[in-house]
Design goal:
Layout: E1 7-8, E2 11-12, H1 18-29, H2 35-42, H3 46-58, E3 78-86, H4 91-99, E4 104-109, E5 116-122, H5 125-134, E6 142-149
Helix pairs in contact: 2-3
Length: 161
Amino acid sequence: MVLRKPEFGGRLIRDLDSIDREILKMLVENGRATLSEMAEEVGLSASGVRRRIKVLEEKEVVQGYTAVVNPEKMGYGVVAFLSIDVRSGEAGRVAGALTRCKGVCEVHKTTGDHCLIAKMRAENRVQISEFVEDRVSTYQGVKDVNITMAIETYKEELLTT
């Protein structure tokens, strides 16, 4: 998925009105809140809230709905950040390959010392090491990969409004 400049009817997201922002906040905090619950909170009818959500979806401010899964409860308690150096012109191809790999949560093209940074989760350090040695290091265009293991996570969540 390629993220684009966030727009809402030609306006940047920061120009949403307070009701739209409150609806977004409620959707992020509890995607299972009912239209009636949201309507009561923002002072609109349920159909008014439904219309606003539909517009937010059409303008791709809201891009989907999903469950938030605790990775540690699913056995993916180890977090690593892979700093990947690639040859000129290869970042997009390598990033595309990484996005299809199990355990890779995020892939970013960056400035600075490395071309790409990928966040991945695994059951243990050995899985991460093997993934880097057996897969990432063998991708055409990859020059070097550095692994940074997270010792403790203090905050990890999706964007909130």
